[in-house]
Amino acid sequence: MRDSVGRVRTVLLLGGRSEIGLAIVERLVRDGAREVVLAARGGAEPPPGALTELGASVHSVEFDAGDPDAHTGTVAEAVGLVGDLDVVVDAFGVLGDQAAYEADPASAARAAAVNYTGHVSAGLAVAARLREQGHGALVVLSSVAGVRVRRFNYVYGSAKAGLDGFAQGLADSLHGSGARVLVVRPGYVPTRMSAHVDPAPFPATPGQVAEAVASGLRSGATTVWAPRVLRPLFAGMRLMPRALWRRLGR
């Protein structure tokens, strides 16, 4: 439960090793969160000192994005450790390589399952808990890659497009319940996962994404972009003729 001045007390990170997810958690801890649950396959150890030195208690639970039958149990385990969930950060996924996916369609399907259907089961499990509590926010890491899918990463981009649509529908389903969804649309973020990808214009650091999330949670926003310049830029890109978009996406 948020404290008397509205600060977040508890945070669950689905994707407990995500650099962006951990940056968001650290930002919330700096703002006063005191109970953190990191959920990842095999459990996730907290970064050395990063959260505990800021005064947070850190717990670890098992979470496998590819095992939807276990997602409700993961959420229940987190609740058992820290009580009501004020913020849940949905930050798991794989980027992969488009050429590799085209050479191995089965691997593409597995990646798409993690990047989309895993979020469906996890998101619905979280939403059920937040609805029951009558409060809380689910932060969903979408991507500008899903706003208009490009040919060089269309397996990843199409999954993100599906996730973005799912998150918006989930937000509408929670309207009036006291719970909400914040959709986050970062551009290129240099992390271990994106190390093999050529940098793109208007990059953002994990810390900048975290700041956008913290600001969005405070303001009650439904969607945030990181950096904010991407919002008008992609509004124009949505209208770009397909032939031109195809050439830009090479």
Automatic annotation (TrEMBL):
InterPro entries: KR_dom (IPR057326), NAD(P)-bd_dom_sf (IPR036291), Sc_DH/Rdtase_CS (IPR020904), SDR_fam (IPR002347). PROSITE patterns: ADH_SHORT. Coiled coil: none annotated. Signal peptide: none annotated. Pfam families: adh_short. Keywords: Oxidoreductase. It comes from the Bacteria. Residues 9-191 form the Ketoreductase domain. Belongs to the short-chain dehydrogenases/reductases (SDR) family. This is SDR family NAD(P)-dependent oxidoreductase. It comes from Nocardiopsis tropica.
